[in-house]
Design brief:
single chain, Rossmann fold, 2 domains, seven-stranded mixed beta sheet, three-stranded antiparallel beta sheet, CoA-Trfase_III_dom3_sf, CoA-Trfase_fam_III
Length: 409
């Protein structure tokens, strides 16, 4: 299979990343950088590779063999599979490090250092290297030995306790939110360090953790709670935020649901056509009686079809939207207009439908050039690039120092 060719220049062309990361946080970060043109060399375990290769939802595999979780976060990368405990593999990695710009890893704190792949090890061979570590709770402290997983961090940082209805259990976000926030912070830190290196010539260490990221991304909620010494109380209805008053929330229709955000209450009541609801048109009542108001508004919205209600609300300049499933979102007219769902060809999974790169640059657009790789698919290619003879490469493959699952031509 040949790579997708593009004539457009890439913003991060010439930047090389050694990517030791697995699962979601690190791989999403390096995929975002790869989409912008960085050469990401994914360093994986021989045979097994990234843990996400063996994890999937509902035991479903794209093309019968490939994990959708892995395919989601690893396009535009090359894979080399090496036994990190092997002295020969370490010599190869440190040779690659001499020309690497960035190293990314999200193992538990101390694991990479113990293997001889810590920041100081890479800086010794390349003082300009930027070394980015992602962890659950930082590099030390009382939680350093805890597993740092997305849902666990959601629970620790308040977002679960603030999500859902008061009579229901605390509700996690229906996606890997902590990990994805962590990935964005990795990219933010790496690009900041790259810019500093352009001015100073110096590399540095970048440390990102899920705990700090999730707190930072709830800053308005934290500022409210900290400064008034009072936690939010979840509503008992479809109100959409524990700090908001009515009508902010999710409302039923005859055939679905709609969301209504910050909108003039009186205008909304006018659209729904029940002036009896104007008795609540007071800032104090709209919060104190928000669950009661929600129920009465919901009784009115339930008389409409989604399409008819949306048309009426938009005509009145009410902030609103439909509630859609993932499949419905993919068919949304704005999503289709912006071409936010695309696909690539994979040597085993076939056509893989994916979400397109989210950031658009006018002169150096992000592109999908390569599918997510097989384990060690590019082992031979990468070792040749660094000057290793075919005889040496074959010897390492035979001895287990390296591994290659090579795609069919």
């Amino acid at each position: 299979m040949t790579d997708t060719q593009t004539s457009a220049p890439a913003a991060l062309a010439g930047i090389r990343i050694l990517d030791f990361s697995h699962l979601l946080q690190g791989p999403f970060a390096t995929q975002l950088l790869a989409d912008m043109g960085a050469d990401v060399i994914k360093i994986e375990r021989p045979g097994k590779g990234d843990l996400f290769r063996s994890l999937t939802f509902r035991n479903k595999w794209v093309g019968g063999s490939e994990s959708p979780n892995f395919l989601a976060w690893n396009r535009n990368k090359r894979s080399i599979a090496l036994n990190l405990k092997s002295p020969e593999a370490k010599s190869v990695i440190m040779e690659m490090a001499k020309t690497a710009d960035i190293v990314v890893q999200n193992f538990r704190p101390g694991v990479m250092k113990a293997l001889g792949y810590g920041y100081e090890d890479f800086r010794a061979v390349n003082p300009r290297v930027i070394y980015c570590s992602g962890s659950g709770y930082g590099e030390d402290g009382p939680y350093v030995d805890r597993p740092g997983q997305d849902m666990l961090v959601q629970g620790l940082t308040g977002i679960m306790a603030a999500t859902g209805q008061a009579d229901a259990p605390p509700t996690p976000v229906g996606a890997g939110f902590s990990d994805q926030i962590g990935a964005m912070n990795m990219v933010y830190g790496i690009l900041s360090a790259l810019y500093w290196r352009e001015k100073s010539g110096l590399g540095q260490e970048v440390k990102v953790n899920l705990l700090a990221g999730m707190l930072a991304h709830q800053n308005q909620e934290m500022v409210m709670a900290l400064n008034f010494n009072e936690d939010f109380k979840r509503p008992r209805s479809g109100i959409g935020h524990p700090g908001m008053d009515a009508p902010f929330g999710t409302y039923p229709t005859q055939d679905g649901w709609v969301t209504i955000a910050m909108s003039p209450y009186r205008t909304l009541v006018g659209v729904l056509g029940n002036d009896d609801l104007l008795v609540y048109d007071d800032p104090e009542k709209l919060f104190a009686q928000r669950d009661e108001i929600w129920r009465k508004l919901a009784a009115e919205t339930g008389k409409w079809t989604t399409a008819a209600l949306m048309e009426a609300l938009l005509e009145a300049d009410i902030w609103c939207g439909e509630v859609k499933s993932h499949l419905q979102a993919a068919e949304d007219p704005q999503v289709r207009h912006m071409e936010l769902v695309t696909s690539y060809e994979h040597p085993r999974a076939g056509t893989v439908k994916v979400v397109a790169p989210p950031v658009r640059l006018s002169e150096t657009p992000a592109t999908i050039r390569k599918p997510a790789p097989l384990v060690g698919q590019h082992t031979r290619e990468i070792l040749r690039e660094f000057g290793y003879a075919e005889e040496q490469v074959s010897s390492w493959l035979a001895s287990g120092v390296a591994y290659a699952d090579e795609a069919p031509e």
